[in-house]
Amino acid sequence: MENIILLAREMGKAIQQSEAYKNLRAASEANDKDKTLQDGIGQFNLKRMALNEEMQKTERDEANFFFFNRELQQIYTDVMGTPSMMAYQIAKQEIDEMMQQITGILSLCVNGEDPDTCEVPVACGGSCDSCAGCH
After folding, report:
1. pTM of the full predicted structure?
2. Domains, the chain
3. Taking a C-beta distance cutoff of 8 angstroms, is the pair 120, 104 a contact?
4. What is the dihedral of CA 128, 96, 27, 23, to 10 degrees?
5. How many CA atoms lie within 13 A of 98 on its CB side?
6. What percent of the chain has pLDDT over 90?
7. Which of 20, 58, 125, 130 is the most buried (most CB within 10 A)?
8. Which residue has the higher pLDDT, 68 or 89?
């Protein structure tokens, strides 16, 4: 088992050398340095706390509830629409896809598939145009 752990550590090093990982780290650092984005995240957290407080009241003010909820949604849209957050989301999706493929291959191997030829099935995108049939 010791050599398997060593191989996992080597894989971790390879992942950290990948462009996907480097892109994610760069996007994360850019988000940390983006004052406008950080201010938006702070506003979002404050509005979320206000909304939670309103929701926990036994006699909640529906007007306040809808006001806080609408503001929260607007701040969320603004935060997620910033260029640095959009770049982060793209980089995060890329690394998530890579990790899903890695864990998928490992799972197939644990179930007896050939490590050299096993393929991780592509998730259904919802369109049946190019589909060979459902699972």
Report:
1. 0.75
2. 2-110 (1.20.1500.10)
3. yes
4. -90
5. 17
6. 73
7. 20
8. 89
